[in-house]
Amino acid sequence: MTLTIKNKYVIFKLGEEYYGLPVNNVLFIERIGRITRIPNSPKYILG
Fold first, then answer.
1. Is the pTM of this model over 0.70?
2. C-alpha angle 26/24/13, rounded to 5°?
3. What is the average pLDDT value for the chain, to the nearest integer?
């Protein structure tokens, strides 16, 4: 028995949901860097 992989996906989590995109549609992946707080901004704005 031979296993053939036809499709590859990039899987990521956003909030509590998981999503997947075909790897051919992804140009690059960036990690989140250090976030700097903005003075006097609402709490829901991270930086």
1. no
2. 45
3. 89
- Half-sphere exposure (Cβ direction) of 33: Cα atoms closer than 13 Å: 2
Tokens, residue 21: 């995109």
| Statement: residue 27 has pLDDT above 80 | yes
Give the structural domain span for 20. Answer: 1-47
Q: Coil, strand, or helix at residue 2?
A: coil
Is-contact 9 21, C-beta < 8 A?
Answer: yes
How many independent structural domains does the chain possess?
1
User: ∠ at Cα 33 (27, 39), nearest 5°?
Assistant: 130
